[in-house]
Write a structure and sequence with these properties.
By secondary structure, the chain is α/β, with parallel strands linked by helices. It contains twelve helices and 15 strands. It has a seven-stranded mixed sheet with strand order 8-11-7-12-15-14-13. It has a six-stranded parallel sheet with strand order 3-2-1-4-5-6, sandwiched between helices. Helix 5 links the parallel strand 5 and strand 6. The longest helix has 17 residues. The structure holds NADP nicotinamide-adenine-dinucleotide phosphate.
């Protein structure tokens, strides 16, 4: 199969660097073009990331000599089958730019939050709501777009706990109390670039509590003829904390159900959860998607974030709760599953369904 040529907007940033490494030798996609800010435009990739390359592996040789364009230069991206977007700019500017790409027949698979709440833009975690790709047809009709469209992935924090809830929907979860412990790479930082985070916990991440409370209701919603209908009947209260971990977002969750399952029911639902992403054999789909551990002190960021190449969600610490019904801990890799890896899996789903 001939590989699809893809572009990356924001290729030099933390998430952009993940795209570059995860797409190196990808079976379906090949990075053909890269773009970033006007500061980087004109430089070759290796030069532009010198001194701020944050990945464990070296810059892939296939990417080193790619010359960066300015992300606002849409003409420079012509010829690619679609772009991944990982820009850090003013949200309104990102919205306009992503729409301009779609209008120019270049589909956008976005990691940014700018369009997550746009009514006709699907927010997809491929294992959870693959059917939301139907919203793309409504979007194209609304906007008069032919080949172009925008699809987004969700915020990284929710990927540590919504995957655990999806297999339990038949028990009708009604309330969730979520406390997240989020790694510094989620802010595009390392301990070198953010030394104040060493030996520190900060109980604030701008806008994150609201995202963590609201986004699950869109992801768990249904697509009707008129568009997306958010899930009703579940209330989430979230407190998001930045902690001194480099990678890996953890969530401690207490949950109440309308019809309470037993602990065995929960473990069984997690262990047997099969997803469309696995059925379609998408190259980046982890199998299993959910890993349940009974080991004390697990999941832990260092030991579990890389499970299934950073694409699985590890669950543990499951016990009855004294106030709600159950508590558990979930963990996912924020820049892999929660960002670039999740967006690549979404693009694979879109390709398998014929949208790309
Ligand atoms: P980052 O490391 O700060 O990288 C930002 C990227 O955007 C760089 O490539 C930068 O190019 C480019 N950029 C900045 N200003 C620009 C402009 N005016 N025009 C064009 N390009 C511009 O940020 P990040 O952590 O990778 O995050 C990128 C996006 O993903 C953000 O929207 C963030 O909220 C979201 N996100 C991040 C994570 C995570 O775990 N880090 C998870 C989920 C979502 P230069 O190098 O040329 O400045």
């Amino acid at each position: 199969m001939e590989k699809l040529q893809v572009g990356i907007l924001g290729a030099t940033g933390m998430v952009g660097q993940r795209f570059i490494t995860l797409l190196n030798n990808h079976p379906w996609f090949e990075v053909a073009k890269v773009a970033a800010s006007p500061r980087s435009a004109g430089k070759n990739y290796a030069e532009a990331v010198e001194g701020r390359w944050a990945m464990d592996e070296d810059v892939p040789s296939a990417a080193k000599d790619l010359v960066l364009s300015d992300a606002s230069d849409i003409e420079a991206m012509q010829g690619v089958a679609f772009v991944f977007s990982a820009l850090d700019m003013d949200k309104e500017d990102i919205k306009k730019l992503e729409e301009a790409y779609a209008a120019a027949d270049i589909p956008v698979v976005s990691n940014n939050s700018a369009h997550r709440w746009t009514d006709d833009v699907p927010m997809i975690i491929p294992e959870i709501n693959p059917e939301h790709t139907d919203l793309i047809d409504i979007q194209k009709k609304n906007r008069g777009w032919d080949k172009g469209f925008i699809a987004v992935k969700s915020n990284c924090s929710i990927q540590s706990y919504i995957p655990a809830i999806k297999p339990l929907m038949e028990y009708k979860p009604t309330k969730m109390l979520v406390t997240t412990m989020q790694a510094i790479s989620g802010a595009g930082k390392t301990f070198e670039s953010w030394p104040e985070m060493e030996d520190n916990v900060i109980p604030h991440i701008g806008g994150e509590n609201t995202k963590s409370e609201k986004e699950p209701l869109k992801v768990l919603g249904t697509i009707e003829e008129s568009g997306l209908k958010e899930y009703e009947g579940l209330t989430i209260s979230a407190q998001c904390n930045r902690v001194a971990a480099l990678d890996g977002h953890m969530a401690d969750v207490a949950v109440a159900f309308e019809s309470t399952p037993s602990k065995e029911d929960i473990v069984n639902a997690w262990k047997t959860f099969k997803t469309t992403a696995q059925e379609l054999s998408l190259p980046s789909a982890p199998d299993p998607f959910l890993i349940y551990t009974e080991e004390e002190g697990r999941p832990s960021t260092k030991e579990d974030r890389d499970a299934e190449n950073g694409m699985a969600v590890t669950l543990g610490n499951l016990r009855e709760d004294t106030i709600l019904d159950f508590r558990f801990t979930g963990l996912s890799h924020n820049t892999i599953r929660g960002a670039a890896g999740g967006a690549i899996l979404l693009a694979e789903l879109l390709k398998a369904k014929g949208y790309l």
